[in-house]
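TICKET: design request
STATUS: open
ATTACHED STRUCTURE:
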């Protein structure tokens, strides 16, 4: 009898231990580049490619993830009902991931294993290979393929459960969620340039889309505090202190589309940086046609004098428009190993040197002043050439 009870307990424990993730509807986001698994072009056809794109949370980026009882999961696209499928039963590195009608075969079964800090690997039962950002691309449109698991950022994913617009309100904290705010306007207050203000939204491995931050309520903007965060199609009516701050150690904060306006002498006082980057070993991505309006100090700045300051901090800025005046676009601390990569940047009235595009600084500790070294091109810390910038 004791032996039977032991066996039953072992079976219960073993079955439970497989379920690293609860079944549900998720947006699946890459640790490497902050982009989401995406069925290309919203296709509902069998054989459509699965890639990665800016995290917008559309139905072709939402997946019903279901535990199958043997420790594996099915992953089915909401818009088509089809399953992620190892194409043509290919067991080699580089195998394509596509969608196909669900059959429950091993090429549609996936091990989802927790790897720490809220990240998971997704490994095919068929081949024991992991879904991988192909060639470690940082850009939207990167393919998702299979490769032998080695634990790199391109093989780690966060699962953001799809929530509702009711979760989107001033002062909210979102944890492991994707929320479309439905066009709401939210805000707290704005005490000029004060850095002690609360954030309007706090994102902990979460993403929001389609929200307006009120001109008189921008406070300290949106904080990304852990994991990967995306702010898609967000409108900052008038920046208060900062539009958003990256505080996610080892994570990625992405701005996808949307716009930010800053008025000189308005609610937020003097023009300042739009996006602040405080966390180390982390990345801020600004893309998707984001547009800055009004008068601004900088688009992005690696913190010059944070407490326990250091790096590296990385920025990837592409497909961005500056429609207004700005002091400079990006500021890196070269002594901390920061790097800004800039492509396809459009600046109103641009001429060489006005405004400066990428400036290098000496990063210091809290209470000290950060020294500016000046504008650099094609350096180890400013990866941008004059051909990457155009005026209009």
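STATUS: resolved
RESOLUTION: sequence designed for all positions
ATTACHED SEQUENCE:
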């Amino acid at each position: 009898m004791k032996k039977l009870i032991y066996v039953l307990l072992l079976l219960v424990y073993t079955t439970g231990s497989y379920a690293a993730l609860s079944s549900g509807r998720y947006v699946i986001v890459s640790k490497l580049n902050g982009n989401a698994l995406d069925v290309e072009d919203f296709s509902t056809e069998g054989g459509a490619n699965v890639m990665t794109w800016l995290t917008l949370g559309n139905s072709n980026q939402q997946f019903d993830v279901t535990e199958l009882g043997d420790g594996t999961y099915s992953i089915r696209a909401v818009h088509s009902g089809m399953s992620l499928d190892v194409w043509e039963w290919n067991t080699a590195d580089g195998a394509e991931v596509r969608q196909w009608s669900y059959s429950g075969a091993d090429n549609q079964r996936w091990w989802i294993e927790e790897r720490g800090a809220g990240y998971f690997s997704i490994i095919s039962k068929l081949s024991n290979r992991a879904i991988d950002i192909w060639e470690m691309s940082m850009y939207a449109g990167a393919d998702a393929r299979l490769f032998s698991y080695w634990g790199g950022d391109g093989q780690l994913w966060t699962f953001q459960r799809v929530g509702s617009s009711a979760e989107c309100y001033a002062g909210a904290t979102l944890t492991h969620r994707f929320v479309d705010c439905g066009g709401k306007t939210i805000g707290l207050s704005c005490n000029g340039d004060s850095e002690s203000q609360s954030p309007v939204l706090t994102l902990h491995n979460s993403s929001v889309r389609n929200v307006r931050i009120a001109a008189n309520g921008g406070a300290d903007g949106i904080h990304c505090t852990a994991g990967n965060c995306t702010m898609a199609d967000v409108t900052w009516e008038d920046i208060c202190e900062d539009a958003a701050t990256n505080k996610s150690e080892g994570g990625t904060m992405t701005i996808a589309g949307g716009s930010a306006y800053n008025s000189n002498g308005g609610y937020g006082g003097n023009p300042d940086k739009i996006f602040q980057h405080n966390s180390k070993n982390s990345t801020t991505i600004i893309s998707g046609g984001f547009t800055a309006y009004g008068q601004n100090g900088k688009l992005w700045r690696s913190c010059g004098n944070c407490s326990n300051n250091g790096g590296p901090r990385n920025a990837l800025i592409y497909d961005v428009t500056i429609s207004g005046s700005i002091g400079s676009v990006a500021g890196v601390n070269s002594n901390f190993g920061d790097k800004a990569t800039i492509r396809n940047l459009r600046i109103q009235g641009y001429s060489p040197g006005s405004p400066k595009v990428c400036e290098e600084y000496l990063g210091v500790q809290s209470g000290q002043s950060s020294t500016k070294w000046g504008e650099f091109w094609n350096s180890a810390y400013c990866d941008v050439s004059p051909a990457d910038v155009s005026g209009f």
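CLOSING REMARK: The mean pLDDT is 94. The first helix runs from residue 2 to 18.
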